[in-house]
């Protein structure tokens, strides 16, 4: 089911299946979110939970039991219920059930809060541990933005670049696709914009370790004044990704990462894993500013 929130500047459509943003459109008709054309990638902006990336052999162990789970977890493929909604905000909830416990042996509530404020869309991903034991999880978002944004032929993919407000030297995670290889970490300077090209993503995503900082990434171009700025809070990793030759780019805030190629498979030891105690809450927050 599609739910809509709006204000005088933006109209946002959210699918209760996966609590996924399907559209962000300005009042003058500019669509920012990727269409989900299955020729390239059939999603728009999935929520990633309770893992980010892929598990080695699509499995992990907990309490001497083995569990199977696909890439990015199961939340993106499950139906959320609407807890409450106003004209410019909405809360959607997924509660653990018999189906989730076959993949993930923890009781939880996952509440996604979307709220508009002028040209900004805020997202809070709230993870509640409703179990009697400590809960291990990762969480993230995977929003895809049209590139180019303007479809009249005046803009091209390589007119766009990604700039970083938080300049400096970061660790770029290398991958033995689809797994991270932490023995191959390289340094990258984010003082200059990264010019987009399709070739940039031919060897998969570009991922840097942020180490729990506020981090702002800006997608813009040299032709028009349109773009998107993402600010993520206490973020662990940031990713850039696009499907091969696709007319979009994903700006991805992650509180977790794919398994390291050398993992022992135990979820307690998983790289980038988060842990919360019973009756506690973890909130992952990011803002999108559309211009």
Automatic annotation (TrEMBL):
GO terms for molecular function: carbohydrate binding; isomerase activity. Signal peptide: none annotated. This is Aldose 1-epimerase. PANTHER family: APOSPORY-ASSOCIATED PROTEIN C-RELATED (PTHR11122), GLUCOSE-6-PHOSPHATE 1-EPIMERASE (PTHR11122:SF13). It holds the Pfam family Aldose_epim. It comes from the Bacteria. GO terms for biological process: carbohydrate metabolic process. It comes from Apilactobacillus kunkeei.
């Amino acid at each position: 089911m599609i739910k809509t929130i709006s204000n005088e500047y933006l109209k946002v459509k959210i699918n209760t299946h996966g609590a996924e943003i399907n559209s962000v459109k300005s009042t003058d008709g500019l669509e920012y979110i990727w269409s989900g054309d299955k020729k390239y990638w059939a999603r728009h902006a999935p929520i990633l939970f309770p893992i980010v990336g892929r598990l080695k052999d699509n499995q992990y162990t907990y309490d001497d039991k083995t569990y199977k789970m696909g890439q990015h977890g199961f939340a993106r493929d499950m139906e959320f219920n609407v807890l409450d909604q106003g004209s410019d905000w909405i809360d959607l909830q997924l509660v653990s059930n018999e189906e989730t416990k076959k993949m993930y042996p923890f009781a939880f509530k996952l509440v996604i809060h979307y709220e508009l404020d002028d040209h900004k869309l805020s997202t809070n991903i709230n993870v509640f541990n409703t179990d009697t034991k400590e809960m291990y999880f990762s969480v993230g978002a995977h929003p895809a933005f049209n590139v180019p944004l303007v479809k009249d032929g005046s803009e091209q993919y390589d007119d766009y670049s990604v700039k970083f407000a938080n300049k400096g030297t970061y660790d770029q995670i290398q991958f033995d696709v689809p797994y991270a290889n932490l023995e191959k970490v390289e340094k990258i300077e984010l003082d200059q914009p990264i010019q987009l090209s399709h070739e940039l993503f031919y060897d998969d995503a570009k991922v840097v370790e942020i180490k729990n900082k506020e981090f702002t990434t800006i997608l813009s171009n040299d032709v028009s004044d349109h773009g998107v700025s993402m600010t993520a809070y206490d973020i662990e990793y940031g990713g850039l990704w696009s499907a091969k030759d696709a007319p979009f780019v994903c700006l991805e805030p992650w509180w977790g990462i794919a398994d390291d190629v050398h993992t022992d498979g135990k979820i307690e030891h998983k790289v980038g894993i988060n842990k919360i105690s019973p009756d506690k809450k973890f909130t992952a927050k990011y803002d999108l500013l559309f211009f």
